[in-house]
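User: structure tokens for this one?
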Amino acid sequence: MTIEIKVPALGESVTEATVGQWFKKPGETVKVDEPLVELETEKVTVEVPAPAAGVLADIKVEAGATVGIGSVLGSIAEGAGAAAQPAKPAAQPAKPAAPQPTAAAPARAPEPAPPKAAAPSGNGGMPPSPSARRIMEEEGIAEAEVQGSGRRGQILKEDALAAASRAAPPAGAAQGGQSAALAPMATPPVPVTQLRAPSPPNDAAREERVRMTRLRQTIARRLKDAQNTAAMLTTFNDVDMSAIMKLRTEYKDLFEKRHHVRLGFMGFFVKACIQALREIPAVNAEIDGEDVVYKNYYHIGVAVSTDRGLVVPVIREADRMSLAEIEMAIGDFGRRARDGKLSIEEMQGGTFSITNGGVFGSLLSTPILNAPQSGILGMHRIEERPVVKDGQIVARPMMNLALSYDHRMVDGRDAVTFLVRVKECLEDPQRFILDL
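Assistant:
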């Protein structure tokens, strides 16, 4: 019996997807619910599981094609056994023993031992990325010699480059197994008159053209739409992180022991932003045509970077959550975002967003709005700076903050006040602990 593999429902407003990579080839055995193919939508990447156990009979849609909901991707021969194993060759008659060499006949040289098989790679059956495959082919590196670090063990470009650097002989090593002392003498230098400039390299041959993923296309379109629609403006402030860092140092071990989650910085920023949003509701609102929609709830989006692009899962009802619950939600989102396990619903409905470029070393930036939201807070790296405290110049761990906002909705005074409230809460954490 043949079972069709169809494109599942992918969430509200999602009508099509792009076929990514197939994890199985026709004729290979599959288990029920085993991932078969990857689909890229505008917001997430999903894996289509096998609807039944058997053998992948055929693939009807190749990677790169666009498919709609319910389209047939391939089929499974249900209940079929594993692909037939090649028959073992018939036992050959034993060869007669070779005659022992006599004094008149020279002894036969021993045959070289067969080469050792390369250690199996840890790529879990995933094909290498196109750029990694090209590097491996150019360098003559087998897949079994490379340990993949990508999702599901896929070999990425950096893995192939690392393997190539390990395989390259050290600079200055003698060729042909000769020692430096036995290396042939260098040839005499070529007269300057005979030197010729090298021919210019072919730039096109050194380029790599890769189709944008559907997620990257969506990110590009949404960011440009936000620039074209909103009257974006950014205001800045800085915050002394001494109090937060001291609090973390004193209680991080007890916090982790009690709640089984690490105490990070993002939870404090979510709490501080909620306090400021309550005071400045315009930053938590959005424009819908000629109406202003004030959100009397706080769904905070937290930007997470993945190898496929930036995604913004939403912490719903964040104002009703404890610091530990917020940290647990952020940690869960981060893990599932990197594994491509976030659902579309988890990235919709946010009222305000926070992005942290500081984890990559950013000192200052102007974040772009996550439309249709009216505000987004940018965090940056913490660094020691000289500041004046009580008339004395002292070193303090300072962070730059940036609030990008839609000036159609938020006045400059409200934007500045919002940042000041966030700064006050972070420099005096008791304010939001006591709801002040």
